[in-house]
Design brief:
Blueprint lengths: L2 H7 L5 E6 L8 H8 L9 E4 L5 E6 L5 E6 L5 H12 L2 E7 L5 H14 L3 E5 L20 H12 L17 E6 L10 H14 L3 E4 L5 H13 L6 E2 L1 E2 L7 H9 L5 H8 L4 H22 L3 E5 L4 H11 L1
Parallel strand pairs: 1-2, 1-11, 2-5, 5-6, 6-7, 7-8, 8-9, 10-11
Antiparallel strand pairs: 3-4
Helix pairs in contact: 4-5, 5-6, 9-10, 10-11
The structure holds flavin-adenine dinucleotide.
The site of flavin-adenine dinucleotide (FAD) has 22 residues, from strand 5, helix 5 and helix 6.
Length: 318
Amino acid sequence: MKVVDHLKNANGKTLFTLEILPPLKGENIKNLFDNIDPLMEFKPPFIDVTYHREEYVYKKKENGLLEKSTTRKRPGTVGICAAIQNRYKLDTVPHIICGGFSKEETENALIDLHFLGIDNVLALQGDAIKTEAKFVPDPEGHHYASELLEQMVRMNKGIFLDDELQTASPTNFCIGVAGYPEKHFSAPNLKSDLKYLKMKVDMGASYIVTQMFFDNKKYFEFVDKCREMGIMVPIIPGIKPITAKVQTTVLPKIFNIDLPEDLTDEVEKCKDNAAVKEVGIKWCVQQSKELMKYGVPTLHFYSMGKSDPVYRIAKELF
Ligand SMILES: Cc1cc2nc3c(=O)[nH]c(=O)nc-3n(C[C@H](O)[C@H](O)[C@H](O)COP(=O)(O)OP(=O)(O)OC[C@H]3O[C@@H](n4cnc5c(N)ncnc54)[C@H](O)[C@@H]3O)c2cc1C
């Protein structure tokens, strides 16, 4: 079933959904299932699975020189989506990124998803390679999420890259895109960012998932601005509980977000990360309650591989 249909069928009730990361290469998928199993109590209708770019690693050779090689530390997004669909009988949303893929490779990946019965995708530019300062598109690939979205929309109409294919069977993807209540880090201002967000929606994106935020005011203002511009699709809030002190400096740097003073003041008072986790859970519960009252279609939790805090939050809400 499509994400938008899940949202519609909820009839105004707020759903519980989550985003997970594929395990590190070599890890057993059982660890992932052990994390997801308890969350099934809250009946998530769909789970997002992130996609991770290749990274450069440098190994020292006998002659002292460094040898550069490429590795993907968290492969398996498509396999995990299929495994979750099989095991839990719910829908999965693989994240599809521009970075590192030619259009042809993207088309093949989308064909695999279609054959697996995975009809939901989140179309993203994708992060830059960790050791590179900015995003560099594949020479044969897409630069912006909107271009990737366009390829998906064309496939939904049965138009594939090979224009000699006259009778290609269309795919049936429900396509989501990312939105940034506090602006994407590379956008000159929020207005410019929203212009491109609107472009993605006008081109066929059916819903938006936001970057994490810790101040609901930012989300409410973002939704208002989107609606003023005529962006009328569902805007799913992405939220995450703080679980470690270091996150108060790392999250703003990685995600270009602010943390409210009240939250950082509380975290600073904590003696250890066990105490920080309690503060993070309390904050996230309060945030969630206010978002539910506002009428958000789903609370989308960034679980980051740890289900325990999300379980405790969901237990108070659902
Ligand atoms: C919910 C969510 C899930 C994510 N999941 C993943 C994941 O699984 N894997 C991963 O690697 N990353 C993921 N990311 C991170 C995301 O890939 C990065 O934030 C990336 O830098 C931007 O992606 P985007 O799809 O928003 O890009 P785009 O929509 O392409 O926008 C990127 C920037 O370019 C601007 N822009 C857009 N179109 C144009 C245009 N035509 N001309 C000029 N400027 C333009 C935008 O304003 C923005 O500043 C996720 C982010 C979110 C919010």
